[in-house]
Specification:
five-stranded antiparallel beta sheet; 31 strands; mainly beta; globular; 427 residues
Length: 427
């Protein structure tokens, strides 16, 4: 469905990041178990309840000195400052981190393969604070490995998809879950309908999408995909559901407004034309920019922006290295930039739409998050979060432009603000 013509450049593009299995395994996390390859059947009692959190450090707006640009004349993140660190003690395999802000940005949930789920309070709700998060979480719960977190649109409840085959419903003020929705296979993803919290969809490793009605605790629909579904996401208007598969396919379903039943509408193929990766690699992230454009992250070290109904690729983002882990792209709150971590310890930032005749966007900014090269998960904080912190820091002359969160495997959670130097003169 990609409209550009094949060329020699496309051939070398397909080969650029191909490495041997031995080279890929040189990552520090080489012994960690990738979640799609293992079935988990553990209960919360199998996980130690030792403290999840170590040292906390509030930093004096330390500048990021290693920000670099590639094929980009002027940086947009030259004001990037490291402002907070929270040490997270991993008790599990730590092959992934999962983070999700509540829609009202009051809370941030952090989990993954660490053996715990932690709920942090965003400090913009508690007066003037220069840091983003309260250093000690308001809630910590031992859990099986969690593959996805989904909030309802009111921010009053959230779901966790677990690799022991369970989906659990939680409230931010409760230490125990409210309901359990069992599955026969590990659950890779879960998502609430964005406008009706009575419906949610799960994707498990049996290739089946399940539509649940929460109030009746029953399944309202089964939808068999052609292959295992790794991640799912609703469009902003709730009219479409995207399902990312393990070989580069993305299925686009229509969601009926009357009963939210799904009907297949389109299929996108995120694959290189030539080389080892022409068979397609796992889709690890889906993010809708609006009701027409979809950002897709795949394990071929690429991100792609599609007009998802027409099947037209608008941009392909190059630079990061992502071949084995569930990294995903993230839009900035103004949708002008895209960010993604990497397996080499770097974070890459592209302009969302760049004037590229061949649609390949290889102009970016990049920085190292820490000294050691570990798998780095990264995300932009949403608009509500940026606004909350700006309101709490009302004494500064200029507002924070962006907030970036980074999590390395067996490493600290780090928070960065992007703001001009004169905006922090009073802190």
């Amino acid at each position: 469905m990609e409209s550009y013509q094949s060329s020699d450049e496309e051939f070398y593009d397909a080969l650029e990041f191909e490495e041997s299995e031995d080279q890929s395994c040189r990552l520090e996390s080489q012994s960690m178990i990738l979640t799609n390859e293992v079935s988990y059947h553990k209960t919360s009692e199998d996980y130690n309840s030792t403290s999840f959190f170590g040292n906390h450090k509030t930093l004096d707006f330390s500048s990021v000195n290693n920000l670099r640009t590639y094929k980009k004349p002027q940086p947009d993140f030259e004001g990037l400052k490291l402002v907070q660190e929270i040490e997270l003690t991993c008790r599990g395999n730590c092959a992934r981190w999962v983070t999700k802000f509540s829609p009202d940005s009051r809370f941030l949930v952090v989990s993954g393969d660490c053996g715990y789920m932690a709920l942090f309070e965003v400090l913009g709700h508690r007066g003037s604070h220069s840091t983003l998060l309260r250093s000690v979480p308001s809630l910590t719960v031992p859990t099986p490995p969690i593959s996805e977190i989904a909030w309802n649109y009111q921010g009053t409840q959230f779901l966790t998809a677990c690799l022991d085959g369970s989906v659990k419903l939680w409230r931010p003020d409760k230490e125990s879950h409210l309901s359990v929705f069992p599955h026969a296979f590990p659950v890779n993803s879960v998502v609430f309908h964005p406008h009706n919290s009575d419906y949610f969809v799960t994707a498990s490793q049996d290739k089946i999408l399940r539509l649940f009605k929460l109030s009746e605790k029953r399944i309202d629909g089964f939808y068999m995909a052609s292959d295992e579904v790794n991640t799912i996401e609703y469009s902003i208007n709730g009219k479409y559901l995207a399902a990312g598969l393990v070989k580069g396919q993305v299925l686009i379903y229509e969601s009926r407004s009357t009963d939210f039943k799904l009907r297949l509408n389109n299929e996108l193929l995120c694959r290189n034309r030539y080389g080892f990766k022409r068979r397609g690699r796992k889709v690890t992230g889906l993010s809708f920019l609006n009701d027409e454009l979809l950002l897709i992250t795949t394990n071929d070290s690429r991100l792609r922006l599609y007009k998802f109904l027409e099947g037209e690729m608008l941009q392909k983002y190059k630079g990061t290295y992502n071949s084995r882990f569930p990294l995903r792209g993230s839009f900035s709150q103004d949708f002008k930039h895209i960010l993604c971590g990497s397996e080499k310890g770097k974070v890459f930032i592209w302009n969302t739409l760049a004037d590229k005749p061949d649609k390949k966007n290889d102009s970016y900014e990049v920085f190292d998050v820490r000294k050691r090269k570990v798998v780095e998960y990264a995300m932009f904080a949403p608009e509500n979060t940026v606004n909350l912190i700006n309101n709490a820091m009302s004494g500064q002359k200029q507002e924070i432009k962006h907030i970036i969160l980074c999590l390395g495997l067996k490493e600290k959670l780090r928070v960065f603000y992007n703001l001009p130097d004169n905006a922090i003169s009073n802190h």
